[in-house]
Amino acid sequence: ARAQYNLARMKNRSVLYFKDLMKYFKNLTKQQIYYFFLTVAEHWSVRVLDAIITLILIRSLNVLDLGSFVVYQSWVAVLLLFFPALENILYREFSTLKERGELGNEIAVFRIFNIFKFILAFIFAFICSVIPIGGSIQEISWLHRFSSLCLAFALPLSQALYGTYREPLRFELKQKTIVIISIDGQHTGSNY
Fold this sequence. Notes:
Elements: H1 2-26, H2 30-60, H3 63-79, H4 90-100, H5 103-129, H6 142-171, H7 175-187
């Protein structure tokens, strides 16, 4: 009896949730639906192109190269904690900066900061490439380790370079341009 009661209660909640969702969708304008689909297109295109890039890496690299890249990618995941994304300030300050005419100056500061992050990543890659990956049967050359680390850093940090331009476009509801930027960034390998 208790299980039936819980099942009926969950069913009622699901029906109420679905009804609320349908009310929400009925109140959307055509423009809001258009922006919604463009946002979905942006995120799905990024995910699909990520999968394609991953499959290309898996198919084109030998086991040792792919393994070292994956190990260094995990190192980079930890090191990225030292690389804050200042452009997130735009979510809070965009309208104020735009009103005062300081948006261009702020984006220039973000661009300089992102260049500094790339230089710092290059230094980290140089230092970390001195450390060999332990337990490997075949010794990996320093140049191979260094280039793998640079690639591992470049993939996530490249988002920061065009992210400072993408976010203001998002606030201005220029979703079509964002989709084109995201797909082009993925196609050229500047987004991961």
